[in-house]
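Lab meeting tomorrow. Look over both lines:
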Amino acid sequence: MAEIITLDIETENTGYDILNDNKSILSIQLLSNSKKIFYSGSEKNSIDEGKKELISHIEQGNKFLGFNIRNFDIPMLKKFLDIEIPSEQIIDISEMKPVSEMKRKIGRKRISLFQVCQQIGIDAGHKTDMDNLAKQFLNLPNVVELAKKGAHEWVTTLGWGYDFSFDLAKKRIAGGMAIFDSFKEFVNSGGSEDSLFYRYAMSDVDVEHAVYEKLEHI
């Protein structure tokens, strides 16, 4: 019987485009049968070792679970590691019926993992911790200038309002800078499990697994 592997990645992205501005994969997090594995940079648990494990799970026919995994994690694994995960081996929480009903309820085409957690009563406080760090970058001159560029692009290509676009671009840039800044702190700490980056990355797979389990019974 195929296992369900919760999969999440963190990437280096300090731009406003969540797909095209990525420079590398910083970490791969897996949760399988209550066993959590973290791959990022060290000789023991390097990204290359993570790639080998992912390929092994693909070959075994195991399924990969994640939130918005089809539109982000999967394309990034293909882009940076040349890994193809077959569509039939993907379980995307954002496509589950209860999540679609939540989108309809709040009148949004998209909903974040944090918003889903709020709706079903699951703690996702790790998101708030990273958001608090991101506030330090939010109004830096270089962030503001790049956000203006992103806003003008979205107004022209997507027809979005400028103020909405500017605020969203700032949040994306600052959020990416916070993740990358915490990653550098994680590396400098020798890979401490007490670091913000490690706690944030590993909490993502914990929360995604918990969300899936709860939605399966709604």
